[in-house]
Structure formats: C-alpha cells, structure tokens
Amino acid sequence: MAKISPKNIAEAVYVATEGKLGQDLTTMIRRSVKMLKEKRMLGRSDEVLDALQSIFDKKTGTVRAKITTAKSIGHQEKKNLENEIKEKYKAQNVLSEFFEKKELLGGMRIEIGDEIVDNTYRRKLQGLEKFLKQEK
Amino acid sequence: MSNHIVEILKKEIENFKAETKIDKIGKVLEVFDGIAKVSGLSDIKSSEMVTFPNGETGVALNLEEDTVGVIILDDFSKIQEGDEVKATGKILEIPISDNIIGRVVNALGTPIDGKGTIKADPSTGSGLSAYPIEKVAPGVITRLSVSEPVSTGIKVIDAIIPIGRGQRELIIGDRQTGKTAIAVDTILNQKGQNLICIYVSIGQKDSKLRKLQTRLEEGGAMAYTIIVSAGASLPAPLLYIAPYTGVSIAEYFMDQGKDVLIIYDDLSKHAVSYREISLLLRRPPGREAFPGDVFYLHSRLLERACRRNKESGGGSITALPIIETQAGDVTAYIPTNVISITDGQIFLETDLFYKGIRPAVNVGLSVSRVGSSAQIKAMKKVAGTLKLDLAQYRELEAFAQFGSDLDEATKKQLERGKRAVEVLKQPQYAPIKIEHQIVTLYALTKGYMDDVSINKIKEFEQGLTDYSERQAKVFYKQIAEKKMWDEKGEEELKKVIKDFKDGPWGNSLKDRP
Fold first, then answer.
1. How far is it, in rounded angstroms, from Cα A67 to Cα B509?
2. Beta bridge mates, A63
3. Cys staple from A47: which of A6, B89, B166, B314, with CB 3.0 to 4.6 Å?
4. Is residue B165 within 8 Å of residue B229, measured between CB atoms?
C-alpha cells in the first residue's frame, strides 16, 4: 500500500470538516487528531496544517503574499499593492504580511507561493557585479 | 588615471539592464551527497537548470508530487537547508567556441588547465555558442552509412577490426590490458587526418589524466584534441554529465561539417556514478542495483555518434567507448548493454597481454559490424584472409602441442600463423602509416615472410618498410592517391621485396635450417 502523505490527510480532514460547526466540528477535529496519533504522524502535524491551509486557500481563492521592503511603506501604498496582486492572481482576497529588511537598500521583494518578484537594489547591485565580472 | 577607470566603468554600467521578472523559486528541504531535495518549483521541467544562492548550478532530475530531486554540479558543502533555489527555465548548456581545441575542460565546459577562459574568436568568426548537453540524436533521414576509415595506426585494428567515421566501436577488457593505450594511439595517429579528437575522462585518477595529457602534448596531438575531465575525486553528478558534455562539444564541430572522434574512458564508471545518483534519489534498483533506465543512459549517448549526409551539413562523430570488465566477464550487465548498442567491439585479454601479444586484442571475439566498408581498397585486399588465417592458426596451435607428426600443409599454416601474430604485435605510442601497414601485410599474406626467422620479423618489417618507401615510389603514390595499386605498382613492390630479401641485410634475417 502506498504511504499516506500529509497532503492526503489534509484532504480527508478538509472534506470531513467542511460545512460543520460547533460540536460536530470539535468531534471531527478530535477524531482527526486521534487518527494522526494512530498513524504515528503527530510529528508531521505541521506539514498537515500547511497542506490544509493551501487546500483552504485554493477553495476560498486566497492568495498569501510576503512583501519585504527596506523602509516601511504607507497604508495607501499597501492597499494599492494588495489590489494589484488581487487583480493579477484573480484572487478573492489577499492576505499579506509586510517585513522590513534594511539590507535590501531599496525597492521591494514580493513572494507569492513559489513565485517571486525581486526588484530590490540589493539584487540589482548583485546583478551588476555579475555583469561587470563576466568576460566579454 | 582614476578618471579613466571611472569612464570605463560608466560605459560598462550603461550597458547593464536590470530587468525585473517573475522567478520561480523553491526551498532546499535537505541536501546530501551532491543531491538536494527542493520544495516549490512547481513548473520546473525535467533536466532544467536551477541555481543556488552562492551561484552553484543544479539539474532537476526527479519531479515528484511535492518535491524536486536536484543533482548539484558544484561544491555542495555551502548549500544549507532553507536556501532559495531559482529555476532558470533553461536546459543545462555549455559555452563552446573554436578556441576550446587544445584545452582541458571540466564537465561544465569550464577550463581547468590554467590557460584562462574560453573566449569567442572574432578573427575566425567563431562566436561563443551555448550547446545543450542533452539533445535528441540525428534522425534516419539525415544519416549516411559508414564508408570512410578512421586510421588508428594499429595494424591489428586497421586490418582486422576496421573503424569507420561515424562508427561506435567498443574497447572492452580487464584492468591493465591496454584499453586507454589503444585510444591514445588512435589520437596520436590523427595528425593531419582532419579529425578532431575529444577524450572524456570519467572517474579516472588525475595523475593518469595528467600523464596522458603530457603524452599528447609531446606527440603534438593537443593541437586537435580536447580533454573533458571528471576525475575520481569529484561527486557523482559531474561524472554523470561529463560524457554528454563531451558529445555536445563533438556536435558543435560536427555542425561545422567536421569529423570528430570521441573517446569515453570509461562508461563502467559512468554507469556506477549514475547508479549512485539514482539510489540517492530513491529510484528503485534493478539488476546489479543499476536503475531501470541504465540502458537508455548509454544508448542515448552513443546514438549521438553518426555520419550525416551533405544536405544535413555533413560531418561525423565516431565514438570509442571503453568498458572495464571484472575478471574477463563480458556477460555482466553494463558490458552486454554497451556491446549491443555499439557497432562492434575490440576485446582485450589479460592472458594475451602477459604472453607478450600487445595490443592484446583477441581477434576471435573482436568484431566490427561495419566491416570492410570502412577500409581503403588496398587494405581490404591484403587483410581479406588475415582474420581467417589467424583463426585457423589458433585452432591448429592446440593440435600442434600434441606432437610433431604434422603434414606439410599444416606445418606451413602454423608457420604463417606464428608470423602473422608476430607482425600484428606493436609497441605503444608507435602508430604505423597505412602505406607501411599495407606493405607489411602484403609481404606476410603473399608468403614473403615464410622464410624469415620468427624473432627477426620486427627487424625485417622495419627494414622492408624503410627500403620500400625509398624504392617502390610508384606503389606508394598509387596508395596515397587512388587508395589501391594496379599491376604496375604490384610488380614494382614484388621486385622491391625480392631485392630487399636478396640484399645482405634481408638475407641475414632468414631462417637457417
């Protein structure tokens, strides 16, 4: 028999809990945790949660963005950025996290899933370094 | 001065364009033994190149549901868990220009001989081209059958197991039987033959490679040779891609309509490195723990050797793969695979080697499936019966050991066979011109050597070739120009051989009853 992956469990948990509320939901979650224990997969519960989150995001059309800048950006700018992401990924809602990192010097780095747009000064300077070093 | 530098920098920086684009990234989950497991990279293709934060390159080999198995082609000790991996969207490729000739490069095409980078050469109009290391072999329509010889300068090969341009001939034998020696002699003999040679060293000792390089330099062979080196100290992924790099370089020259000879030394170690990678990637093992696609590993490599027709640009790639057997066992997995892929094999034996028959070619087990179509007409004529003679001699030799009551015809055949074996012996690094080979074999097969004493055969051969080159000018001219002699040439050669034998030197070499 094939091994059960955290993704399989997450799918099962999602189907079992979908549309349930109150006592029903608690029972389902309790049973899921019990199953994890029986299958000796409690150590991989992080992976199960990650998989569950990505299933949930897919179903609800949620996009999670990680935005890193050198200096903090204003509220309006954040709003514009989120709208832009919403449009590009045709998402229902955008959950964004903002980080500050001085080493980036300037510009912005946006991470969405396994896609990345990096136009920070740091990366540009690294590109320039590579460009100047290469022999022509 | 500083102003000048600033100006140059300004100019350089003006050319630089920092593009912003969407990259696909992944995260390293684990890294071990030259392999990295990476999450993310959702749209990656098989064999696509990826880059790690410190500039290391990798190739995606295993595409699984949630992870990608990547082989790392650089030092993997600096890669850590959690590092960002970027997909490049390109299949692994290497930069090549005409300037690569005479250089020693690693499996990624980067020079390792300390003579600087390989640059484009505007004087010859040769730009720096990027060639993918994996490519589908040329199709049937573009191919031509093999008809032009690769002259190895080794009598036993040129006469009995001829190799043609575009052929794949396996050199197989135990350790220390002279497999590499045949390859090196073949390279040394290509001076002025219009053939670019590529030697791919896979898992060999660096000292051995250095020795070989020095030998080639001394023989002036580096002027038309490229060495691709993936030494024994390197991780398995580099050993695995080295032959593909070699054949990409060969394809670069073939695309210019040139003829190329490529030697893979050796494919047993290549298979072992692929087994290592496959097992680390958790692919299921099969026979001898090799993965299921080990046949495809070699067939797709050797199929890229070919001879193309004029309409498709001409040119050819001749491949000489080498396989090392264990205790003469040719029925192991990898040897049988490669034997079935190639167009023939040169089988070297330890017993023959220690009997002093060098090159230790077992004439009975060696074949060339292209056969005499890869020989010039004159060689075809003199070598026609040689293989049969030798086979008969081997058979009779066993009988002869029982006693001396043999009839005259058998005795004669035995004597001829002994001389044939003697003639086919040849020292290392001493390739022989095709004209000289023809004269020697002519003298042997027509019976002119029957009365020469066995231990003086070598001396006779040397004397005869020197003498005939001076005296039989018409014969030599005909071979060089028409690749065949006519009656006039043959008469001249017969007379010259007779004169030499009757002369004082030739006379002294004869058997005294």
1. 92
2. A94
3. A6
4. no
Chain B residues 443-462 within an 8 A CB cutoff of chain A? none
Task: Nearest chain B residue to A126 by CA: give it.
Answer: B18
* B482, HSE (Cβ side, Cα atoms, 13 Å): 9
Residues of A in contact with B9 (CB under 8 A): 132
Residues of A in contact with B13 (CB under 8 A): 128, 132
**Active-site amino acid positions of B:** 369
Asked if B20 lies within 8 A of A135 by C-beta distance, the reply is no
Cα distance between residue B318 and residue B185, in whole Å: 15
**pLDDT of B202-227, one tens digit each?**
999 999 999 999 999 999 999 999 99
Residues of B whose CB is below 8 A from A118: 20, 23
| Among B502, B371, B495, B397, CA closest to B442 | B495
What confidence tens digit (pLDDT) does each residue in B259-275 have? Answer: 999 999 999 999 999 99
Those of residues 21-80 in B touching chain A at CB distance below 8 A are: 21-26, 40-42, 65-66
If one counts every other C-beta atom within 10 angstroms of the C-beta of residue B513, the result is 4
CA distance, residue A14 to nearest chain B CA (Å): 19
Among residues B257, B250, B199, B263, which one has the least CA distance to residue B96?
B250
Q: What is the mean pLDDT of chain B?
A: 92
- Three-point CA angle B205, B209, B214, nearest 5°: 145
Task: Using an 8 Å CB-CB cutoff, list residues of chain A that contact chain B.
Answer: 5, 7, 111, 113-119, 124, 127-128, 131-132, 135
For the cut 60, the answer to whether the pLDDT of residue A106 exceeds it is yes
Average pLDDT over residues A1-7: 79
Q: Domain map of chain A by residue range? A: 6-58, 63-133
What is the Cα gyration radius of chain A? 21
Cross-chain CB nearest to A135 (options B20, B42, B119): B119
Between the alpha carbon of residue A133 and those of residues B20, B51, B86, the distances in Å are 20, 18, 21
Q: List the one residue out of B56, B28, B22 whose CA is nearest residue A109.
A: B22
pTM: 0.91
The partner residue sitting opposite B25, judged by closest CB among A5, A116, A135, is A116
Q: Is B11 on the interface with A (CB under 8 A)?
A: no
Mean pLDDT over residues B149-160, rounded?
95
β B225-230/B104-105 pair status: parallel
CB–CB of B321/B171 below 8 Å? yes
By the 8 A CB rule, do B200 and B243 touch? yes
Burial class (CB in 10 A: 0-12, 13-18, 19+), B359: buried
Alpha-carbon distance of B166 to B344, in angstroms, equals 13
Is the distance from CB of B129 to CB of B118 less than 8 angstroms? Answer: no
Q: How far apart are CA B325 and CA B346, in angstroms?
A: 13
Distance of residue A115 Cα from the nearest chain B Cα, in angstroms: 5
A114 and B41 within 8 Å at the Cβ level: the answer is yes
Sign of CA dihedral B178, B180, B184, B189: positive
Two tokens, residue B100: 């690569």
Give A-chain residues touching B15 at CB under 8 angstroms. 131
d(CA A127, CA A90): 31
B13 in contact with chain A, both atoms CB, cutoff 8 A? yes
Question: Chain B residue with minimal CA distance to A123?
Answer: B18
d(CA B339, CA B329): 13
Contact list in A for residue B122 (CB cut-off 8 A) is none
